[in-house]
């Protein structure tokens, strides 16, 4: 796969998790919605996989495209960059508010449901715009660019998600989306939750809990290698 195909693969995975986010939002918005089994893991995915890894990869892709001469004036890179920051802020708000849900605070479910709904809508539009942009700019990248970017992607996965972390996040997303599909098919949430399998322990340890005070700036990861 070239780097655009790798990004496409992650977009498909992210799109799957957005259906999970929307289903979580629907349940949380119901009166007495109670707890949400996938909620904390979902927020961990938004933080680790999307903000810290996927969007950091895209930052390097943007830089490479600018370096190859894609005009900064007409390219929507600044807009994408701005939206990445917005996603990081939304994820931080979700992480902070999630504790209110777990503590049973009145109104917390509706608050988190609103964040999840807004996040899903913005991310769907963001992915659509990025995919159009990448299609147009793919021809600007040569074999060396793909090799360089692939090495950066591998490095980011190791640094942000840990050994096998990318695979574990992909597995969780597939499982969560599968449970959502089953719930939709049967119309019975209890069956879907009964069939729910716990995520790998290593995944849980890797992504939970989110420290509310930590920076989530997608374009300013801890390494300082991307902004
Ligand atoms: Fe993006
Ligand atoms: Fe993206």
The gist of it:
By secondary structure, the chain is mainly α. Helices cover 73% and strands 0% of the residues.
Structure report:
The chain is mostly helical. Helices cover 73% and strands 0% of the residues. It is built from eight helices and no strands. Helix 1 (3-29) runs antiparallel to helix 4 and helix 3 (77-102) runs antiparallel to helix 4. The structure holds fe (ii) ion (FE2) (2 copies). One fe (ii) ion is lined by residues 11, 54, 58, 127, 130.
Bound molecules: fe (ii) ion
Mean pLDDT: 81
Approximate strand percentage: under 5%
Number of helices: 8
What gap, in angstroms, lies between the N and C termini? 25 Å
What's the total number of strands?
A: 0
Name the poorly predicted regions.
189-227
Describe the biggest sheet?
A: none
Radius of gyration: 18 Å
Q: How many domains comprise the coordinates? A: 1
Q: What would you call the structural class? A: mainly alpha
The helix/strand order is: HHHHHHHH
Give me some keywords for this one.
227 residues; mainly alpha; elongated
Layout of helices and strands:
Elements: H1 3-29, H2 39-67, H3 77-102, H4 108-137, H5 143-161, H6 165-186, H7 189-194, H8 201-207
The structure holds fe (ii) ion (2 copies).
Residues 55, 58, 80, 84, 126, 130 line the site of one fe (ii) ion (FE2).
């Amino acid at each position: 796969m070239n780097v655009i195909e790798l990004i496409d693969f992650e977009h498909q995975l992210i799109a799957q998790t957005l259906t999970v986010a929307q289903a979580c939002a629907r349940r949380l918005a119901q009166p007495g919605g109670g707890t949400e089994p996938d909620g904390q893991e979902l927020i961990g995915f938004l933080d680790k996989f999307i903000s810290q890894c996927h969007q950091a990869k895209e930052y390097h892709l943007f830089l490479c495209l600018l370096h190859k001469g894609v005009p900064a004036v007409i390219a929507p890179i600044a807009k994408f960059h701005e939206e990445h920051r917005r996603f990081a802020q939304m994820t931080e708000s979700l992480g902070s508010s999630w504790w209110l849900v777990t503590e049973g605070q009145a109104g917390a479910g509706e608050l988190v449901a609103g964040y999840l709904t807004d996040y899903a809508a913005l991310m769907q539009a963001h992915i659509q715009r990025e995919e159009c942009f990448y299609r147009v700019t793919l021809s600007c990248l040569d074999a060396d660019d793909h090799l360089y970017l692939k090495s950066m992607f591998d490095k980011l996965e190791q640094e942000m998600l840990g050994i096998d972390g990318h695979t574990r996040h992909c597995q969780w997303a597939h499982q969560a989306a599968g449970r959502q599909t089953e719930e939709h098919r049967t119309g019975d949430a209890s069956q879907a939750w009964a069939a729910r399998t716990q995520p790998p322990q290593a995944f849980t340890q890797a992504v939970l809990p989110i420290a509310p005070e930590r920076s989530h700036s997608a374009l300013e990861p801890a390494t300082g290698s991307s902004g």
